[in-house]
């Protein structure tokens, strides 16, 4: 099997309330796997569990077939990268923020600088390299955040709604740069979103999460053409209505 | 009023003429209080990191004890350390009572809760999402500690200044465990007490101005660092 990362029987609770109950989620090499669902569906929790940032109450994560033990978490995390919805930076310059992750992973300063500069250029953010990271605008910050993730050259990339807080113009241009980067690197990607358009645009496969449970899994087309539950039908209809409304307004 | 003016004059004279006794006492004070502050910081950092990041039973009680310790009276600490270090005490065999080491021990006990409580608060203020970012970059727990300390460095610096301020200005514990021995365990505060009790108000005032000057220099350094951060982040 060419499964790169797999989660089995994942269960996350908070004060006896089940936030996440997923029997299996697996990402094959090179595929873009989307997880979609409304707010509060448990999408971000699933991402944190899969990215080894949160330990579930029950369940195991497997990386290339190897069960990830507690002692291996840092080692495996160094094969991954995460882009969060809210791009957060350390109190330092853009370049320092990008090279930091590489240096943590044992890359020497010169190579780290080269990679950082290369990816800043790919994301059209090379002019920002000496700016203080926390002084960037939302769009600039997300460009840098994506450059930081790609600079790490991860085997698995996790994205938690990276385009949701951006205005339409910045979003469009950033999505184009991001898609180009994904195409050329072929990184296995777990993509969290609540926007069906992004799923149709990027994903090879999609999982629908509602109330912490998997409602449907398949290709994006299967999902749109044949939603399996009434709740999912309503979710898709609501998305179509909002799109139609937007088109009408335009 | 004359006494105050004379005190200021004498302080300036002592500093300008490089009065040997004053320099020795001042340097000794800085040395014992500095060492005590550094030991307190070394104890506080890992404990504060653990308290800030982990959830465990009794966490709130531990934080409240550290907060309570911030107001620990130096004389009470002096008494406890005396009881421990006295020749007949449990650690009497170490023969530490009335030595500089005894003052460092007592001052460490005073500074540790202050620094621990403030460093815990500083680390807890680092955004939880930023911690995920650092973890996601592949940081080991030690790298995580280093980066979080770097992130909260200005608040931690303020904690260090507060701890240092608490020990350099205390007199009770230093007097009780150090014995105020001239040329051996005399610090600025105990020297002030001695000069006052002898009626040498001008000398006592001169020493108090030197102590205040040191406190001010510490604050000034912190202010400069804070202002530099502002300039770094906002470019003005």
UniProtKB/TrEMBL annotation, chain A:
Cross-referenced PROSITE patterns: ABC_TRANSPORTER_1, ABC_TRANSPORTER_2
Residue intervals of the ABC transporter domain: 5-236
Enzyme class, broadest EC rank: hydrolase
Keywords tagged on the record: ATP-binding, Hydrolase, Nucleotide-binding, Transport
GO molecular function: ATP binding; ATP hydrolysis activity
Catalytic activity, EC: 3.6.3.32
Protein name stated in the entry: Glycine betaine transport ATP-binding protein OpuAA
Species of the source: Fervidicola ferrireducens
UniProtKB/TrEMBL annotation, chain B:
TM region(s), chain numbering: 32-53, 65-86, 98-124, 130-149, 156-184, 204-225
Keywords of the record: Membrane, Transmembrane, Transmembrane helix, Transport
Topology relative to the membrane: Multi-pass membrane protein
Limits of the ABC transmembrane type-1 domain: 26-222
SUPFAM superfamilies reported in the protein's UniProt record: MetI-like
GO cellular component terms given for this protein: plasma membrane
Record carries keyword Signal: no
Coiled-coil annotated residue ranges, if any: none
Location of this chain's protein in the cell: Cell membrane; Membrane
GO BP, sorted A to Z: transmembrane transport
Keyword Transmembrane carried by entry: yes
Classification via Pfam families: BPD_transp_1 (PF00528)
NCBIfam families for this protein: ABC_perm1 (NF038017)
Alphabetized PANTHER family for the sequence: PERMEASE COMPONENT OF TUNGSTATE ABC TRANSPORTER
Family: Belongs to the binding-protein-dependent transport system permease family.
Name listed for the protein in its UniProt record: Sulfate transport system permease protein CysW
